[in-house]
Amino acid sequence: MSVADWIAVDWGTTHVRAWAMGPGNSVLAADSSTKGMGTLKPEEFEPALVELAASWLPKDRTIDVLACGMVGARQGWVEAEYLPVPTPPLVPARFRQADAANVHLAVSIIPGLKQSAPPDVMRGEETQIAGFLSQTEGFEGVLVMPGTHTKWVRVAEGRVLGFNSFMSGELFALFEQHSVLRHSLAADDLSSDVFQETVGAVLADPGLAVSGLFRLRAEDLLEGQDASVSRAKLSAYLIGSEIAAARSFWQDERCALIGSPALTDLYSRALETCGCAHETHSADTLTLQGLCAAKALLEEDKR
After folding, report:
1. What is the mean pLDDT of residues 206-213?
2. How many angstroms separate the CA atoms of 36 and 29, rounded?
3. How far apart are the first and last CA of the chain?
């Protein structure tokens, strides 16, 4: 393969993905590894990058590397301090340069965003937001970004105005793996009909999100409730209560979902239940588009 024009990197806690970018932001190659931020010391990031992208690197010139995600966390390669909202999702002047022993690497790390009232932070999602805005000019409304910590983000005039994070994904994992409910949940499947029905019940009575939890175990012990039904109800309790709490974000607003297919499908069903019209986008696709937008901004600054 020819060497890359530049390299795009999405560095998460558990995994890192990289793309060799060619003319017109074409993807020449892509690769990934399990050397996420959580497994590395600061001095180990450069070797991990070189190992992943060795065949893409030039020997006679400097290559730009644009990286987003946990690589810029306090425990990452170098800390890229959060930008306060309201702000455009990408501000090239605030990209953090990472020192590299390889003189041919020019590594820029995109900072996350922070909010002081109420306190909140995001890291990585800002690049997806930039990718979305690069494809959806003039969007004003709310972005719903499901994940371990789901973000509800207000956007207008190309800027992030504010956001709110919900730990629904992490709570689901804790219940699934470490609570008494783990004995009553299916490994993968959930009943979609039961999910939407339960979301509707939670929207009508948000207290069900707490009062219904142990009932899942009791329904299994006393009635032999199918594990896929229990899983659907648990997911609906958490997502339904989140949507109820985020009503001020989505009500009477234009909404877009950004995430993985599995999660956006669940949130789409939940939003349909409350009558919220929305569009859906792939987080993976928008991450790369956001990194391309970051590269374009850097080139503008150079000119």
Report:
1. 91
2. 20
3. 29
Class of 1-114 in CATH: alpha beta
Angular region, 99: left φ>0, alpha ψ -120 to 50, beta rest? beta
3-state secondary structure of 139: coil
| pLDDT at position 1 | 61
Q: Is 150 helix (H, G, I), strand (E, B) or coil?
A: strand
- 3-state DSSP assignment of residue 25: helix
The domain locations on the chain are: 1-114, 124-303
Asked, colleague to colleague, whether 1-114 and 124-303 share their fold, the answer is yes
Average per-residue pLDDT in the chain?
Answer: 95
Cα–Cα distance between 91 and 297 in angstroms, integer? 8
Residue 187 has pLDDT above 80, yes or no: no
Give the CATH class of 124-303: alpha beta
- Residue 181 vs residues 131, 185, 242, 248: alpha-carbon distances, Å: 38, 7, 20, 31
| Alpha helices in 168-282, H assignment, sequence order | 168-178, 192-204, 208-211, 213-223, 227-245, 247-250, 261-273
**How many alpha carbons fall within 13 Å on the CB side of residue 102?**
23
Q: Is the pLDDT of residue 188 over 80?
A: no
pLDDT of 214 over the 80 cut: yes
Tens digit of pLDDT for each residue in 33-53?
999 999 999 999 999 999 999
Integer Cα distance of 175 and 234 in angstroms: 9
Question: Is pLDDT at 257 greater than 70 in this prediction?
Answer: yes
> Which two tokens mark 194?
């039961």
Q: Give Cα 168 to chain centroid, integer Å.
A: 13
Per-residue DSSP letter, 62: -
Amino acid at the residue 253: E
